[in-house]
Amino acid sequence: GMYCSTPPTPDVRLHNRVVVVAAGARSPMSGGNQVAGLVRQLSLDQFENEGRRVRDSETEQMYVSKDPQHLPLDHVASTSGIHKQVLQKLLRPREWTAPVERTFFMDVASIQELCNQCERCFKEEKTVLRLHAPIKIFGDLHGQFGDLMRLFDEYGSPSAAGDIAYIDYLFLGDYVDRGSHSLEVVMLLLALKVENPKNVHLIRGNHEAADINAQFGFRLECVERLGEHGLWVWQRLNALFNWMPLSAVIEDKILCMHGGIGRSMEYISEIEALQRPLTMEQGGLLLMDLLWSDPTENDRIEGVHPNARGPGLVSFGPDRVHNFCEANELQLIVRAHECVMDGFERFAQGHLITVFSATNYCGTANNAGAILVVGRDLVVVPKLIHPLPPSGEGDSPLKFGEAEAADPWIESVNRDRPMTPPRGRQASKPGNDRGSLAWI
């Protein structure tokens, strides 16, 4: 309150510079000892952040494979080391390439054990996590494991050799679907959670729900890559997702969730009151709003409106954001859930920021991906990665650092189930949106 003896914490503010890795700055082919990418900073006013959200449409692209080591996990007598083996295999930001062999490297017993360990972590946590700066915030990843590796490579990795001792990691959900490496994304994040339960934080997205990820690629990937055990693993993971925390508050000032504040919630305490495990049905209107709602198209559209994503879903205006922040003594809301061209986008005069971490979403959006780094001083710095150039045309050999072609099965999922673009929010055709950072 006003009268406590501790010095006041600083106000949250968005830094006036954006960190961008210059396209083509780094080609690991020329030797691994190179200094990581030329990092450019662009001032915020070089951005025009309004109305630039794009929608899910076709297919994902990822790193190209060059030298896969497709080794099964060593069978160890004790299962306690499973998460460490997963980290050893997957947390390789410089070296990871998409496996040529699609069979996933973990056996069912290992997956079960990792799920059990992680479930114990989630059960010990509150539904609304209370976190501290400094912290990095990641938006939707959607099975684009290559982008997660690039973000770790460019901006620090949660390993002993990286920065996990100095900064926390918060992931805002949508780990699965639409991309072709959902299993890698989920297993690495679960292993990181077990290894660093107090410093790695995972909250739930709308795709961490069986009725959604049955339709948009994850169930198919499990069956495709784990054979006869695939369906069992898919069900086990969805049972785990039902335990995930639903929101996070950083330094009592920044509220984070996957979707938004919708129409139904007035106080953070309402989210805290939700009892897990929770299916979407059991969570009711509140969970729908938290995981599915979006801001309106721009700051001029106030109030609560139907959302083109589907019946019963809403968009909320800047007035809702200001009122909610005031009622809960917040300064900022950070959410993911919508693809935005620059990887991040401001709303409600900067009181809400959308962050999206998967580049070239569904293989067609051509968007940049971003994370938000919240410093100890509560200054928020967006850090971006660009979409990779498409893989070599014709006969030219594939080079590292180019996007690989998406798997046919995920292409058909994305083709058959494009998201409806909401009114007025169709992305401009790639190439003529010269103001967008993705183009720069």
Please characterize this protein's 3D structure.
The protein has 440 residues and is α/β, with parallel strands linked by helices. It has helices at residues 82-90, 108-124, 145-155, 182-195, 210-213, 218-226, 230-241, 268-272, 280-292, 318-327, 408-416; strands spanning 13-14, 17-21, 39-43, 53-54, 62-63, 128-131, 135-138, 168-171, 200-202, 247-250, 254-256, 294-295, 304-306, 314-316, 332-335, 339-340, 344-347, 352-355, 369-374, 379-385, 403-404. Strands 1, 2, 3, 7, 8, 9, 19 and 20 form an 8-stranded mixed β-sheet that branches. The protein has a 6-stranded mixed β-sheet with strand order 6-10-11-15-18-17. Helix 1 packs across helix 4, helix 2 (108-124) crosses helix 4 (182-195) and helix 2 (108-124) packs parallel to helix 7 (230-241). The protein is globular, with a radius of gyration of 20 Å. It starts with 12 loop residues before the first strand and ends in a 24-residue tail after the last helix. The model is unreliable at 25-37, 45-79, 393-400 and 419-440 (pLDDT under 50).
Task: Give the arrangement of secondary structure elements.
Blueprint: E1 13-14, E2 17-21, E3 39-43, E4 53-54, E5 62-63, H1 82-90, H2 108-124, E6 128-131, E7 135-138, H3 145-155, E8 168-171, H4 182-195, E9 200-202, H5 210-213, H6 218-226, H7 230-241, E10 247-250, E11 254-256, H8 268-272, H9 280-292, E12 294-295, E13 304-306, E14 314-316, H10 318-327, E15 332-335, E16 339-340, E17 344-347, E18 352-355, E19 369-374, E20 379-385, E21 403-404, H11 408-416
Parallel strand pairs: 1-20, 2-20, 6-10, 7-8, 8-9, 11-15, 12-14, 15-18
Antiparallel strand pairs: 2-3, 4-16, 5-21, 7-19, 10-11, 13-14, 17-18, 19-20
Helix pairs in contact: 1-4, 2-4, 2-7, 6-7
